[in-house]
Design goal:
By secondary structure, the protein is mostly beta strands. 6% of the residues lie in helices and 50% in strands. The chain has 2 domains: 58 residues, Translation factors (Elongation Factor Tu (Ef-tu), domain 3, Beta Barrel), CATH 2.40.30; 107 residues, Elongation Factor Tu (Ef-tu), domain 3 (Beta Barrel). Keywords: Elongation factor, GTP-binding, Nucleotide-binding, Protein biosynthesis.
Amino acid sequence: MVVTFAPQNLTTEVKSLEMHHEQLPEAVPGQTVQFNVKNLTVRELKRGDVAGDSTNDPPKEVESFIAQLIILDHPGTIKAGYSPVIDCHTANIACKFVELLDKFDCGTGKSIEKNPESVKAGDGCIAKLVPLKPMCVERYSEYPPLGRFSVQGMRQTVAVGIIKEVVKKETVGKVTKSAMNAARN
C-alpha cells in the first residue's frame, strides 16, 4: 500500500502494519496500530500530519475552509482578521478568520444576519478560515475526526466547530522510489 502524508505531501510505501510489535494483514476501525514506511525519516513527519491511501482520496494541505462555529467564551467580539489557534485532530495551527458569512441562533439554527460585522459569546456563525501554516483538515461529513475542532484564545476554549467545506491546495511533493515502484505494480 502507498500512503501520502499531508500537509507535508510525502508519499511512500508501507513496509508493515503492526499491533504490539506483531504484524497484521489488515487493520479495522477502532484498532490502534503502527505502520512502518520505507525511505522516510521520523524528522520528515510532523505533529498534525495526516496519513491516507494515495489512490483513494489522499489527504492534502488546505488553502481555506468554511466552518460552522459556536462561540462559547470570548470577552469581546470576534471579527474578520481574528487569528486564534485551532486544535483539530493533533494539529495546533493559527488560522485567520477572513470572512464571517452568517450569524445564526444556536437554539434553532436559523440565520439571524448574513455577513455580520462581528459575533460574540453565545452566537453561532459560519466563517471562512485560512490556516497561517500548512494544515490538513477534512469535511466533518466525510471524516468526522478530521473535521471537528476547538478554537483556543487567551488560554481557554473560545469556540467549537465543524468543517463544512474545504479548498485543497494542489501541490507536488516528495514521492519515494518504493512508492513509485509500488504504484507501477
